[in-house]
Amino acid sequence: MANIPAYAVTNALELQGIPVEGELPTKRLKDARTGRELFETLRRADEENAKTRAKVQAMFDGKPPYDPAQLIKSQQSYRCNLNFGEAESLLEYAMSGYVDLLNSVEDLVYTPTTWGEPNEREHYSAIISSEITRTIREWPQFYFNFLHLCTQFVGHGLGIGHFEDRFDWRFRAAGQSDFLIPRGSMASEDEMEVACARRTYPLHEIWSKIRDAQSAGDAGWDVDVTRKALSTCTDSTSAKTFEFEKMETELKNNDWLSTARATTITLIHLWVKEFDGTVTHYIVTEKGGVNEFLYTGDGFLGSMQQGFVMFPYGLGTNSHYHGIRGLGYKIFSSIQVSNRLRSQLVDGAMLASSVMLQPGSETDFTNVALTYYGAYAVVAPGMTVVPQATPNFQNSVIPVLNDMGSQLQQRTGQYTTQSLFDTGKERTRFEVAAHMEAASKLSITALNLFYQPWDRLVREIVRRMIRPDYVKDEPGGEAIEFLRYRLQLAGVPLEAFQGIDIGNVRAVRSVGAGSPAARTVALGNLREIMSVYDPVGRHNLLRDATVAEVGTTQADRYIKRDPGPRQPVDAKIAMLENDALVQGRQIPVMQEELHLVHIEIHLEALGQFIEQEQEGTPIEDLVPRMMALYEHTVAHLEFVQGDVTMQEQVATYRQSLQQAGEIISNGMKRLAKLQREQQQAGPEEQGDPSQAAGPAEGEMKMQSKLEEHQLRLQMMSESHQLKQNIQIQNAQLKRSLADADKARDIMSNIR
């Protein structure tokens, strides 16, 4: 008994606890009646919170600040009574970051595999991540559930992602309005003893779960009890007279919705933590009449975390789930006051723009009219125009509205960054960049609160996906079968898919943390240092920048995504080109090639020739083999030499090529000297004079090409130096102008 956990103590939730004597009960929930009572207990306990959530939701939905019925009753129906949509706008603005973090990444999840050789794992992991992302996005209800989850998380402070099926990878989003947790539960999944949810289903959906009685019984469904529950929702008088075969026929013919009977059934799900820490899943009917469990999932979950992922917006003030508050609660009072003040402004404006007439008697009241004569308007006899002063709203209402706006910005600062850009002042490029960086920092808090549970949710999705015995007929099974098929087409072994390291699965973070402005700043900063990245890193950065501009679906038109190994295919192509170039073959350079990859591979080959020359190999033997390789590498360099983000790397490449060019030039001179010596020798040593002109002419052409390439390299170097000088001069000019502006401001203040 000493090892029994504290949560097992009998409590007000009607769960069985530790008996004074005897053995522990096998199940903590006695029967279906107890389950319904437990649900009703939690529902009543949540009534006050439910009223508050309803008021907040009504504010988001556009409910006016005054009760229209009360205004009519008090004869004030003429008053302006509008909800100006501030709360809805703030919610939409706060939600935009979460929509962006979903659509700004190409892969939603990173799934490293432990199967295969080390150099294969990264390749397999990239493909698996891409295909799992595709499966999740192609699920029709994914975007709805994700957005609903984010709306509950931001608007009400708590979103809930959970799984209603034991094996189905498809999660369902909920909020506190349809998901009940015991009062006093700490904000952690493992602290919950029980959870309840009420769901309404089409009858055919429940019927499809028990259609195959054998498999349904093995899964945990009580087929007879479920049939009895379904019969209570129809026009049949009893379960005995209900024709299940006819129901099957109607379902097959899609005739069920055309019948006159009810088409939905409301069920209650209960998840109960047992004494051993496992979770049992029960399903009962909301109404009485069926007093048995429709479904019992013994050991449904290994822990509460496998079935529920809570998305709390912080810990509130008491670290309890019911103490957490979202955006709606925090702005409710301010929004109500703001709506009332703005409605008052409208009433004042209407009154100020009206002509106020005072009748002399009740009879004169019937003659209220203005008669126009050209530019004149004549008041009927007995009517007096009452002069009125326009209320000074600038001194009364507007300051209060401004103060309320400031308070709203303070209360919503962690949800949105709109206040940073609402000043209406023109800014310099550097000021905008600084504000964008500040916007990113402000949104990081909210997004980190979201990313932690989002990691756990996608980890549980993947854990369910890779189950080896997942078959097509199970819920979500068709998508998994198609996923496996696509992986096989991509050359990924099934063992690599099932060998995913679940502990290291995580959601892919969006660059800029859900802010397009911050993403622009981040990618701009990375481009300034991209010269230190390897070729694939630079390629990925360009890909990310392209995706940020045109989206993931259009990015392939400009730069292909390469999910292959870290060393790109261009590296192997460049190696093959080296073999052909050293034999003197000319290979054209294509614009779409990864030029930096080619340059590095070709320079490596040139470096080997330089080492051979230093080790004593006759230079005249190396020059013919180096020339074509040298020309080809210079052509690659011309494609990247204009990129300002790679100037340092380009300068390094240019120096290496100039060094190779000097060796080739020396070799050409050595060949020319040998040629002259042969021409000065006797005819018997010189050989056939007709063959002497050929080599000399070829050497002249090689020398001409070499001089041309050296000139191009020199022009590149001079162009780079000129651009640097211009940049330095511009920077000096900007500093001088800034100093002059500061000096002028100082002098004006002194005067």
Give a quick precis of the structure.
This protein is an alpha+beta fold and 751 residues long.
Summarize the structure in words.
A hairpin with a 5-residue loop joins strand 6 and strand 7 (279-285). The chain is an alpha+beta fold and 751 residues long. The longest helix is centred in the last third of the chain and has 58 residues, at 693-750. The radius of gyration is 39 Å and the shape is flat. 55% of the residues lie in helices and 9% in strands. Among the domains are: 1-52 and 171-324, no CATH class; 569-750. The protein is built from 25 helices and 14 strands. Residues 1-12, 235-242, 256-260, 419-424, 436-442 and 689-695 have low confidence and may be disordered. The N and C termini lie far apart (87 Å). The protein has a five-stranded antiparallel sheet with strand order 4-5-6-7-8. Strands 3-2-9 form a three-stranded antiparallel sheet. It has a two-stranded antiparallel sheet with strand order 1-14.
Structural class: alpha+beta
Tally of extended strands? 14
> Strand content of the residues, in percent?
5-15%
Side by side, the strands of the main sheet go 4-5-6-7-8
* Average pLDDT, all residues: 75
Q: How does the overall form come out from the CA principal axes?
A: flat
Instruction: Report the total helices.
Output: 25
> Radius of gyration, Cα only, in angstroms?
39 Å
Helix proportion range: 40-55%
User: How far do the termini sit from each other?
Assistant: 87 Å
Low-confidence segments:
1-12, 235-242, 256-260, 419-424, 436-442, 689-695
Main β-sheet description: 5 strands, antiparallel
